[in-house]
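Example with several molecule types.
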Amino acid sequence: MCGIFGYVGPRKDAVEMAVEGLKSLEYRGYDSWGVAWKESQFLNVHKETGKISGIDGKTLAGECSLVIGHTRWATHGGVTVANAHPHLNADRTIAVVHNGIIENYQELRDELKAKGHVFLSQTDSEIIPHLIDEELKTTGDFAHAVRRTCLRFQGRYAIVAVHTKSESIVAARTGSPLIIGKEKGGGYFIASDTPAFLKHTRTVQYLDDGEMAVTDGRSILISDIATGEERLKREIEIRWTADEAQKGDFAHFMIKEIMDQKESVARAVNQSDEEILTLADAIRNAKGTFLSGCGTAGMACRAGEYFLSIVAHKHVNFAPASEFKLFHGFLQPESLLIVVSQSGETADVLEAMQVAKSAGAKVLSIVNVQGSSIDRASDYTLRINAGPERAVASTKALTGQLAVLLLIAYALDGGVAQGKKVLLETAAQINDMLNPRYVVFLKEIAERIKDSKDLYIIGKGWNYPMAMESAIKIQEVSNIHAEGFAAGELKHGPIGLVEEGTPCIVLAGSDEVLPDIISNAVQLKARGGFIIGVSPVNNEAFDVWIKVPDAGTAQPIVNIIPVQVLAYELALARGKDPDMPRNLAKSVTVK
Ligand code: AGP
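Resulting structure tokens for the full complex:
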């Protein structure tokens, strides 16, 4: 989704930093970008559609110390320069960047139009500088005008605003993230995600919903938007470094992050026994445990259902976060909601948490991003320690989530040590598996199936959610039509889709359901399917065998990894950029 960057302070290369900062937010997904900076008493604005990658900030502006910038993922209005941010008021004295959606924008726009305001874009965001302009007519104070403007919004937003007559940046949020970075020698950054300024500082303060910040680069004042009361905020040192957030020698973040799994699964297991046991107790004592997440994180939850059922004999319910509120009738104050999210900012997940909290239930989150909204709003949090995940296609976060859920299942069954042993052995197996020859082999398979119109994946038990996850990975980066099914369901309908040569991936383990899934693979083969087996053991039903380690309860973790590589190679073979998938954003902060 959209990215925000702001800086005010002693540095003179603010525009260059903004361009670099926005490039670091590219992974969030965007279709246009823009910056506004203050030079003398004027606001200069530069906006473009398309990518910011090739832009050198030095060529845009000379010396300046105050800037705001934005990458836009279109919601209201198409991908045009006029719709790109920053947006301005009529006399170009106020510039604003905005993430989120102002739900009552039509009503506010009509009101402004009646007062003579003219709009140049189709966005909801453009009303903001115009509203601030109106407020400034009754209060001379810029920050106060922004506060009053925010009070009129319905919906989720994060805004950063500047004014030619003010030396400060004003930022405010409700529902969309904003993080403040403080540089040692003076100067403040404001961004929607920390990679935007990690190069300059790791000291941050998190704005919470309903809060605003005003900074002139020397000091910062954080206050409650509704009451104006000052809020004192802790400064936190974030653990991630700027280097971790780079792709290094890899061609794309996606393949870098797939390869990171050689170490990241072991890092996910690095949890304190005491904490895991406390959380296992919370699940044991809860009257109803629910699992929820979106997309890939939702698939981790579905696999978690199997882990908890098979390893810990514990019944839990899964609902995609966007559907969770419809089950509110089953929540009680003693219920527990476990949410899973890489970014910790997904709007649907935040809504599910709100629903659970309204019923008095407790929320446990499994997240990757420290200090994210979900991390901070949870009663308990477990971090998967995957390090920054920047590719839109989630890979190492998924295997970290699966590892943590499996560990919880072992803890519930009284075997934390056993769980850690299994997972650390799996981490070592992944390290061996992801060798260069293996990747070349997967690339060859991708070349062979790259022109297929459809691709189906089947799995049984905990491999069923991995079949659906495989489909997500292939859909998002290669745009091939892919679907994942429960193997046994084939004969009830999906088998009708299989034609001569249709690639069918079969995810298997060496467990008791192996004969069932092989029988389903044979049924596909009999209808002309080209069978790609992902399994620790070969079988004559497979036209191609992708060997994976025998990982026991951790089988879904090792089975999904070759499919991630295959999806990546399919994207390349079809001429797609796997880091910039069509229509998608990394962090989905709208509903
Ligand atoms: C995964 O490849 C997708 N990009 C997407 O499904 C993602 O997992 C989903 O949007 C949830 O994101 P989160 O983990 O940050 O909450």
